[in-house]
């Protein structure tokens, strides 16, 4: 089966409408059989493309945008490895390839083995190097660790796992799993752009085996540190500390292909998941410190990990109604933190709950405000982008919550795509996770059941929106052409002090004509003033390219916080037009 057939299979699985290449719009609360609100279905990719009848199931999902080609890829967590989808055209995802988990068999589909820079000869279980192991524990500590743990030193592993977790730093994916002996797997994502005949089987770029299983992976994209959470077999942490489950820390900033072990965070036992940031919130005592918000089963534990050799617990916060402290994410500004508890709904019989922590003072945190949703489903993973929290709430599917009223303890549900059609009850079915951070506005959602798959979605939420109209003839070098930029305020009622910035790579902007306001060529900026809701304004930009492959890019902003930053930019290319 060739790549074209596989790609078509992903589209055909939706039925007749998708077979014609049609997007399934959310109309009157429905997109096909799915309940929805302000979210369109672009495509669906079944898990079966990674091996029909092989028992494969879904779990985590993350994303990567190639800085060279600007293609967007979904990194799909599966029970037997990691799948790669090119979702640049969200209406027609392309199955690029598959990275089997250590020791796992290839999918039951005829695809070839990809050979790329940094590949190991054997993608399956094998001993690998352990750079950054200052104590020699990975190779010499078997006796101290005991016979039961010895297998984790030499790369021994077995079975697949329902749990896999993926995050990205510097064009590399970092992958962990509850699979015995899995270790920390590193995959150089730049290989995706070299695939000419998809799909292919990939090899891992590197595998660290000084730890075996893990539950989640956290990456601080600003510092390049990687935190492997929930390992009960971290022999690298030394005798007596192997089974604590605290984050094992790596530095990927110097060599993303082979991160260096730098220490273990053992200050508060097992960490299920975390978010680690360079802190710039309201508590100035910790400004520019690297802070981890650890979901530690029964507490939200704040740890200062600036000094990796000496992590310091800032606060250990319990709360009323705790069931299983699962995962959370900072709201923009880092004053508020949203937390999902995986067992509180089942324990109390309540509807879905989101806990809102006010972190004005990291050392003294009041009892969180509890926001109760309209569904009974268990909340699982959430990520904040712009003014929205994108929540994967198991049977209730994707729920998009606007955070503008968070200071009052209110979340406004502005988007829904319910991928589990049976019900919204409590149960460990439906969506595991989502990735909302693509600049295009595409959101990918992974599901658990092997009979389900990956949903490629497009929320229709925004405030300001910029578009560039296509021209009838793309100008050749030295020619002049006019591009019309339209700026639309889709809410709030009025956007104030609106600015439009423009740039032309590969030429000059020679004239600017706005329908309102004024433009200045030297600053490459137009001041459009206050824009009334649903009243478009235009700016005509006359450009003279010097090269064939020019790029005209515009972006718009106002004093109001935009709810969908992806809609604020648009660009025209020398080889065609592209807006997002």
Structure summarized in a few sentences:
The protein has 580 residues and is mainly beta.
Quick tags:
580 residues; mainly beta; Methylamine Dehydrogenase, Chain H; Immunoglobulin-like; 6-stranded antiparallel beta sheet; 6-stranded mixed beta sheet; 5% helix; globular; disordered N terminus
Task: Please write out the topology.
Blueprint: H1 3-12, H2 16-19, E1 30-31, E2 34-37, E3 39-46, E4 58-65, E5 72-78, E6 81-86, E7 94-100, E8 112-113, H3 137-140, H4 142-145, E9 164-169, E10 172-177, E11 184-188, E12 200-201, E13 206-208, E14 216-220, E15 225-229, E16 248-251, E17 260-264, E18 273-278, E19 290-295, E20 300-304, E21 312-317, E22 325-330, E23 336-341, H5 344-348, E24 353-358, E25 369-372, E26 381-385, E27 388-392, E28 398-402, E29 412-417, E30 431-435, E31 443-447, E32 453-459, E33 464-468, E34 481-489, E35 494-505, E36 507-514, E37 518-520, E38 525-532, E39 537-545, E40 551-557, E41 569-573, E42 576-579
Parallel strand pairs: 7-12, 8-12
Antiparallel strand pairs: 1-2, 2-29, 3-32, 4-5, 5-6, 6-7, 9-10, 10-11, 11-13, 14-15, 15-16, 16-17, 18-19, 19-20, 20-21, 22-23, 23-24, 24-25, 26-27, 27-28, 28-29, 30-31, 31-32, 33-34, 34-39, 35-38, 35-40, 36-39, 37-38, 40-41, 41-42
């Amino acid at each position: 089966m060739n790549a074209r057939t596989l790609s078509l299979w992903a589209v055909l699985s939706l039925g007749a409408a998708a077979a014609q290449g049609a997007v399934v719009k959310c109309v009157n609360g429905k997109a096909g059989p799915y309940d929805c609100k302000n979210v369109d279905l672009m495509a669906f990719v079944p898990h079966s493309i990674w091996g029909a009848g092989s028992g494969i199931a879904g779990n985590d999902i993350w994303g990567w945008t190639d800085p060279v080609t600007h293609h967007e890829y979904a990194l799909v967590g599966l029970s037997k490895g990691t799948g790669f989808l090119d979702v640049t055209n969200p209406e027609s995802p392309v199955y690029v390839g598959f990275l089997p988990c250590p020791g796992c068999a290839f999918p039951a589909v005829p695809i070839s083995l990809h050979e790329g820079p940094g590949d190991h000869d054997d993608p399956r279980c094998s001993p690998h190097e352990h750079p950054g192991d200052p104590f020699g524990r990975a190779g010499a500590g078997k006796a101290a660790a005991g016979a039961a743990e010895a297998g984790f030193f030499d790369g021994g592993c077995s079975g697949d796992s329902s749990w896999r977790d993926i995050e990205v730093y510097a064009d590399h994916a970092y992958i962990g799993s509850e699979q015995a002996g899995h270790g920390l797997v590193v995959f150089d994502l730049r290989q995706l752009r070299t695939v000419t005949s998809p799909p292919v089987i990939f090899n891992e770029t590197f595998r660290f085996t000084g730890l075996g299983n893990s539950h989640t992976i956290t990456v601080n994209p600003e510092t390049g540190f990687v935190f492997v959470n929930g390992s009960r077999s971290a022999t690298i942490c030394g005798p007596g500390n192997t089974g604590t489950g605290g984050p094992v820390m790596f530095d990927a900033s110097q060599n993303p292909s082979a991160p260096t072990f730098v220490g273990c965070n053992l200050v508060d036992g097992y960490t299920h998941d975390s978010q680690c940031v360079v802190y710039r919130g309201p508590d100035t005592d910790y400004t520019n410190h690297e802070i981890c918000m650890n979901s530690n089963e029964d507490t939200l534990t704040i740890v200062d990990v600036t000094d990796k050799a000496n992590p310091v617990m800032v606060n250990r916060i319990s709360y009323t109604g705790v069931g299983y402290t699962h995962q959370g994410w900072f709201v923009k500004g880092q004053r508020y933190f949203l937390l999902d508890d995986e067992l509180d709904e089942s324990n109390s019989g309540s509807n879905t709950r989101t806990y809102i922590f006010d972190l004005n003072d990291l050392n003294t945190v009041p009892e969180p405000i509890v926001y109760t949703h309209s569904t009974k489903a268990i909340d699982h993973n959430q990520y904040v982008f712009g003014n929205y929290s994108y929540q994967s709430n198991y049977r209730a599917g994707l729920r998009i919550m606007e955070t503008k009223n968070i200071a009052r303890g209110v979340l406004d549900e502005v988007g829904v795509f319910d991928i589990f059609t049976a019900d919204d009850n409590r149960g460990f079915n439906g969506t595991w996770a989502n990735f909302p951070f693509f600049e295009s506005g595409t959101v990918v959602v992974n599901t658990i059941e092997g009979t389900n798959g990956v949903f490629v979605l497009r929320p229709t939420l925004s405030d300001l929106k910029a578009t560039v109209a296509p021209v009838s003839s793309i100008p050749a070098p030295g020619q002049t052409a006019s591009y019309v930029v339209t700026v639309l305020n889709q809410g709030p009622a009025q956007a104030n002090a609106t600015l439009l910035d423009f740039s032309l790579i590969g030429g000059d902007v020679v004239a600017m004509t706005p329908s309102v306001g004024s433009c200045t060529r030297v600053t490459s900026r137009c001041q459009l003033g206050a824009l009334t809701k649903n009243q478009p304004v235009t700016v005509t930009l006359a450009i003279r390219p010097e090269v064939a492959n020019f790029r005209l890019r515009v972006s718009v902003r106002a004093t109001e916080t935009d709810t969908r930053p992806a809609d604020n930019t648009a660009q025209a290319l020398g080889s065609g037009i592209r807006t997002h």
